[in-house]
Amino acid sequence: MKAIYIATVCAALAIASPARTADITPLTPDAKQVESSSGWTFTVAPYFWAAGISGDTAQFGLPEVHMDADFSDLLSNLDFAFMAAGEARYDRFSIFGDVIYTKLGADASTPAGILADSVDVTSKTFAGLLGVGYSVLESPSGHLDIVGGIRVWSVDTTIGFNGGLLDGVEGDDGDTWVDGIAGFRGNYFFTPEIYMTGWGLVGAGGADIDWDVALALGYKFNETVSAVAGYRALGVNYSNDGFVFDAVQQGPIVGLAIHF
Question: Looking at the record's lineage, which domain of life comes first (predicted)?
Answer without folding.
Answer: Bacteria
